[in-house]
Amino acid sequence: MRAASPQGAKAFFQMLGHLPSGRPRRRARTRVGRWLGMLAGRSVAPPHHRLVRQVFFQSLGGLYLIAFTSLGSQVRGLYGSRGIVPIQELVSSKRLAAMGRERYLLVPSLFWRDASDKTLERGIRAGQVLSVAVMLGLAPQAALMGLWALYLSYVSAGREFLSFQWDALLLEMGLLGILTAPAGVRPGPGRHEPSAAQVALWRALVFRLYLGSGVSKLKSGDKTWRELTACNYYYETAPLPTRGGWYAHHLPPRFQKLSTLAVLTLEAAGPFLALAPRPLRLLGFWLFAGLQGIIIATGNYGFFNVQALALGLWLLDDEALRRLLPLASPRPAEERPLWRTVGGWLLALPFLALGANEILARFNRPRRSPRWLDWLEARARPLRAVNPYGLFAVMTVRRPEITLEGSDDGETWREYTFRYKVGDPSRAPRQVAPHQPRLDWQMWFAALGSPPTWLLALVLRLLEGSPEVLKLFAINPFPEHPPRYVRAVLLDYRMTDLETHRRTGAWWKREELGLYLPPLSLAPGGTTSRLQWYAGD
Asked: Cys-Cys with 76: which of 48, 80, 396, 405 at CB 3.0–4.6 Å?
């Protein structure tokens, strides 16, 4: 073959518009080099993350504000002295008292000294104030310390109602936030660039969050994921469905199968984009953001999806972020002292080691971990420092629901109406996230198994007529006095088809399956309320 002449090459590039005028060859090489550098993950300038850090911490403050405000509307009904599971009863239990100082490690909480209703409410208000401080950039490091300690106090003592994955994720994010937030009263974007160790901590969390969800589905052996039919059931059996989820349920079966495949692919392979070069990492940001947007439109998962969106910011750099938001460039960063870099890695290594061990444990058979790692895990577990994640590993294919009913005579029964849980077939599904009605959520879990102890405590409070608990419901059918009897009925719900909905307006069809709890009443006598079975006449 004959080598191309320089004149021929020049004409070719001019034809493509790469060499429009003088000094063409140098300009072409610069553009090609820049393009290849982008493919290799290199930006034109070294990546900066000070604006990313600033916007993320503003978002983290907003997440804490949502979490505390949502919990505040329910805290007395769930945890007050007349609530379903009072925190005061937990911290004063003899079983924990017998553990001595070990109980403070098992249940790290600020409420050991005082868990009164007023203290629980003051903790909520303090959390809201500190959240706003973080959003405004006021002493973010100190404010995040207070937020983490407060929220951990509720979660540690909150048992079932504060045991969701987004509660653990918020605590993990809060702890990492303390380690990576800029110091000072009004630090703005910070004097120094986030270190490589700090950026690695956040990207590793993104990686674990999504990979954990994907691996848990693949390893569960669940038939619906294996046969790509999970989305056929997902929208109908979601704990708190939305109107968007109702319509998505009626999409064609082929689309549902493709959706299931897309979720598995994105959660099993997509997490590696978080650790990839820049162009692939930016692609990961958009893919994950799209996934969370779809989930928000079709399901109510508290503030979890907003958390995931905020975490995704760490897949960007300042240059990419300024393309999304109208942010001014900050003043040039000061050179980071060597001791800050070394200290950052020393703080990051335990979290990275625990996170890597958690991921490896999903793939390997039970193995013996190093003694120092077991010790570290035991200390980190009560603090929710590093947590496993993985939602919907097994898809529920039916939708049992519990209805609570009260009666004065044991013959005529009236239903307690929940604020958000599926009930009246003619009531449309509601969009409630990022607020999480925790009683409504736990009622969905309770219907999948045998009656939990907290449900018996709930029945007891209804028989007592606890006003704090009754505020958790939309309608109290006994406004003048509490009922003599309360029972729980189990029903099976199915979404109606489009034609039935157009004709009748019903969103659901339901069928009674039987009693979940037989009629219960208060036992006579004594100073402490107790339950007894009611056998009828």
From this structure: 80
